[in-house]
Amino acid sequence: MTTLCVIPARGGSKRIPRKNIKDFGGRPMIAWSIAAVKASGVFDAIVVSTDDAEIAEVAESFGAEVPFVRPAELATDFTLTIPVIHHAVTWWEANRGPVDCACCVYATAPFLQPEALIEGRDALRSHPEAEFAFSVTSYAFPIFRALKLSADGTVKMLWPENELKRSQDLPEAWHDAGQFYWGTKQAWARRQGFFSANARPVRVPRRFVQDIDTPEDWAVAEAMIETHAR
User: Fold this and answer.
1) Topology (CATH level 3) of domain 2-137+174-229
2) What pLDDT does 207 receive?
3) What is the pTM of this model?
């Protein structure tokens, strides 16, 4: 039974063109994810799911496999992650052999730590009822003191009842760190959401998390990598 890593990396990024293979810290962005996956030592195969020949070439040069071209209907701006992973798992089972579980690792996760991948694998396997295990990190500021800017130019609280409460008295909140998602074969096949499923969290320190969707995100990540390199 294969423990499969799937890295989705389509070629049509709009806000940061070619971001999956854009140079980041001296190597293509996707190379950071591939390196972390390899360093974890918990995968039998590393597959990059892409519709782009250049991305495929770069991925293979850093040690991943690209055994198929992702279908066009799964490479649009509106394609969700779960169907892409399900397609990869289905292809692997039809052409290579049975899959035990699969982990989606995003191509834009340059601060991903191999230890977190191992922890996610262990969380999934040690809880028989679990369907997914994925990375989470805490919000830097209490979200229960969040504000909204009204159309009339004023400021209002989303939860006014918290205005006079101390920040330390409010519950800690977490969000998806956007790095990896371990899932059982059955969970990927059901194509339901991560958060509505029986999922286990893998806590990742905020210093290892940065979403990279906009040029501003990219600039922040570049500043972070300089700090990590020291």
Assistant:
1) Spore Coat Polysaccharide Biosynthesis Protein SpsA; Chain A (3.90.550)
2) 95
3) 0.94
